[in-house]
């Protein structure tokens, strides 16, 4: 990890190094213990409500008073970018790359400004040198919006790939890595008829999804929520919905599926789907034309990859701990299904799907979310005043110790994305 960090630092300019040194001093000056999870949820809630400036301010306050954390820096970078504070967002992303190079947040931090990285790559590597003069300086999205731009970019990228040779193929240098990013963006560009962006999904978050008790799909709403909370999941959800024409007809196609579901206003009315977010209503309606979802089937449908499932009440606590820990660390969507008859004292709804948000292996506490959000029933563990085994939070979130989890939940599923 030390070698990766040193390599990342060497790639930075002197100006960037100064900015990072200042940022390190600024963020560590009053750093104390772990971040306040309630404060994080509050800051993220403001982000989901598109209140980007106060959200950015809240995350800035958190990173000033908390131990260094790639997760916090990434949240702060995303909020600052959405708030229009681009230099600060870039500064935070550079700090993550240099100091948390092996963290799950590092590639996401690079993606926040991947478009600019791609357009900057030609300046040092040469792909924009192959573009006509009137197209130079345009962003990837601008180039991909016209047939001329797409063809010119394709030709330029091909020339760059040939020039880079085997180095680009192996990713042996920093320059080749940037070139590969540019090629990936060009070849996997956003189709014109996609309706939503990952940023829009992130802004709505899981609160954009309305659970429908008349359609008991244990694996659907909790899986939708899991994806809406993850950057890669947000991309997957956004990529499922297209609008090829000018009328209000949408096409929903789930990842790695060949089937299209045609959804109209009449379809949503037929199934009485009226989520807070339109994308959620469209996905709900498409699933209604499919079939009821088991826990792993719902996750598999939404991600396009076969979900992995274990039976929580038929294995060891260690196996459950490892399964959840690996999933959350790798930023996979992780969901679980409660038992048919929860034990006393009652802490969860019976036979209900929940989203697993995080797992603290040091304390054994698992953070979960009820898909009903702010409308969730609240619970309390009377003999646990210090909340070492159970803590009810707001908006459907709660924490439960692993020892209680295995008594209250029977299935856990995760899907690599």
Structure description:
- The strands form two sheets. The protein has a seven-stranded antiparallel beta sheet, with helices on both faces.
- It has four domains: 2-112, Serine Threonine Protein Phosphatase 5, Tetratricopeptide repeat; 115-187, no CATH class; 198-303, no CATH class; 308-414, Alpha-Beta Complex (Cathepsin B, Chain A), CATH 3.90.70.
- By secondary structure, the chain is of the alpha+beta class.
- β2 and β3 (261-263) form a beta hairpin.
- 41% of the residues are buried.
- The longest helix has 24 residues, at 147-170.
- It has helices spanning 2-10, 14-28, 37-48, 52-65, 70-82, 86-99, 105-112, 114-125, 140-144, 147-170, 174-187, 198-204, 221-228, 231-239, 265-270, 278-288, 295-303, 317-329, 402-408; strands spanning 241-242, 250-252, 261-263, 308-311, 334-338, 353-360, 365-369, 390-392, 397-401, 409-414.
- α3 runs antiparallel to α4 (52-65), α5 (70-82) packs antiparallel against α6 and α13 (221-228) packs across α14 (231-239).
- The two termini are 24 Å apart.
